[in-house]
Design brief:
single chain; alpha/beta; D-Maltodextrin-Binding Protein, domain 2; globular
């Protein structure tokens, strides 16, 4: 608990420092998306609202939720972007009603009304087993084809996955295993997998970074990040287990009461109606709205998705994370 409180204090000072540097009415956006997406969001907001001091900061989904949960509506965060929806449920009492603010036609089951008009769906994050073919070749290894293959001792020290306690990506792999095998067997699987792991990463993008650095050969990671790197020339391969691609949903919301702050509604409107479409077409293309286009070359088609029952259940998430030992 002491470590958590120290971390939250550091985070608070970090955010407060940025706000104090800026104008009195800075609009603070906490985004759990990758750095390059946040940079593009910041660029577009600066261009669209040159008279406003808008600050886009990255924070992992777990830390962002903990901050809002502990600070409530008095937090300096005005807008949350890309927060995993299990956490959205946990902090829902601190979120503003955004009824009518989205003009996007979502696919069935993902409308703001389905989220009690407390957040709009931001993305469907889907994952797979991603391998660096060159690192595998260097070690004389074949690529794994299933989760069970990851337990082979030949992969010792060559695998990374995100930590479910800090990363929505890590949690959706964990939740998929629970849905496939039950909680006890899923924990046994992780116990066995742990011996082969190089690292649990804090963020969902961590395994891709380690794959690029050649630190590991195999990462449990996000599909769209892997495809982006393949298109940039990296010798990666996306491998889907027979059970399908696991995924979670993320959302975007306004902290309750902050919608009255000057400019927050206008900025939120732009994010969820304009940048949202740009982001899905260029960065995170799993389908969430009707007529969604995909500008990313080589993106897999006709993806089989895994059984993700209960992925948005915050009580189930608490239960499963209490079982997580690492």
């Amino acid at each position: 608990m002491k470590k958590i409180l120290i971390a939250l204090l550091a985070i608070t000072l970090f955010f407060t420092g940025f706000v104090l540097i800026g104008k009195k009415e800075s609009i603070v956006i906490c985004s759990s998306a990758e750095e390059f997406r946040n940079e593009e969001l910041q660029r577009q907001l600066n261009e669209k609202f040159p008279d406003k001091n808008i600050i886009v900061n990255y924070m992992s989904t777990g830390k962002a939720a903990t901050k809002v949960y502990s600070e409530g509506t008095k937090t300096e965060i005005d807008i949350l972007v890309g927060l995993e929806t299990g956490y959205m449920n946990k902090i829902s009492h601190n979120l503003a009603d955004i009824s009518g603010m989205s003009r996007v036609e979502y696919v069935d089951g993902l409308t703001p009304a389905d989220n009690n008009n407390l957040w709009v769906t931001w993305e469907k994050q889907a994952g797979a087993i991603i391998v660096n073919k060159e690192v595998l070749k260097k070690h004389g290894l074949e690529a794994p084809k299933s989760y069970e293959d990851l337990l082979d001792s030949q992969y010792r020290g060559l695998i990374a996955m995100p930590d479910p306690k800090s990363s929505g990506t890590g949690y959706f792999f964990y939740k998929n295993w629970v849905n496939l095998w039950g909680a006890d067997k899923a924990i046994e699987f992780v116990d066995d997998l742990y011996g082969n792991l190089k690292q649990f990463t804090e963020s969902g993008s961590g395994p891709i970074k380690m794959l690029k650095q050649g630190e590991i050969a195999i990462g449990l990671a996000l599909t769209f990040q892997a495809i982006n790197e393949i298109n940039n020339g990296w010798a990666f391969e996306v491998i889907y287990p027979e059970s399908g691609s696991p995924y979670s949903l993320t959302g975007t919301a306004i902290v309750d009461g902050h919608e009255e702050k000057d400019g927050v509604k206008e900025v939120f409107d732009y994010i969820v109606n304009e940048f949202f479409v740009y982001d899905k077409e260029n960065y995170s293309p799993e389908e969430v709205f009707v007529g969604q286009k995909n500008e990313i070359a080589n993106y897999p088609q006709n993806i089989l998705y895994a059984d993700m029952r209960g992925i948005q259940d915050d009580k189930e998430k608490e239960r499963l994370l209490d079982l997580w030992k690492y």
